[in-house]
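Protein modeling request. Please complete all fields; requests missing the sequence field cannot be processed.
Requester role: graduate student
Desired output: 3D structure, token encoding
Chains: 1
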Amino acid sequence: MPEGLQILIENFFDWESALRAWPLLVQGLALTAALAATALPLGLLLGLLIGLGCALGGRLARVALIVWIDLFRAFPVLVLLILIYYGLPFLGLSLPAFAAAVLALVLNNSGYYGEIFRAGLASVPHGQREAAAALGLTPLRAAWLVVLPQALRAVAAPLASNSLELVKATSVAALAALPELLRSARVAQEQTYNPTPLMMAALLYFVLLWPFAHLVARLERRMLAREAR
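Delivered output (229 residues):
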């Protein structure tokens, strides 16, 4: 075996280090999944409410929600987590690390989801709302039963793409000392004196996210095909 290849294997693909790191990585993977499973539906729900508020609210409500969208899209999730986890205690409000990480992810992604839903709802022809009103539907029922299903078809790809980014962003939870996958890999690296755990974490991220990335690509191709018709 060439010496360079042997050194590469010893430093990045060491079997003994991998075995020692595995329990920590499994623990980190479980926490990463829990963060994503909690923040993702909450972010989607808040984003949907923001989008509906922009579509149905008055002028003042729309301006306030657009400010919300711009504000939280401009704030990096890392900065939000610092402000929530380390800043709020100075105001007398301390959140557990898990809750602080979820809140930071939800607030940040509510801006992106809100803009996606707002744009999707605005893309539905106004005639659809007029037809729903002619059938006697209230604006809220028309938005829920007629406009929203059409908007969802138009924004499925960006929603999935942003959800993929949210899962990646769970790594910032390490700042709040949460043992998510990346932090667990770093702890394992310190214990084994070998970067193999980091390579294993990268592979786990790939296995976890590649099917999701493939789904996003398929949705984007379908959306482009519809627009080309």
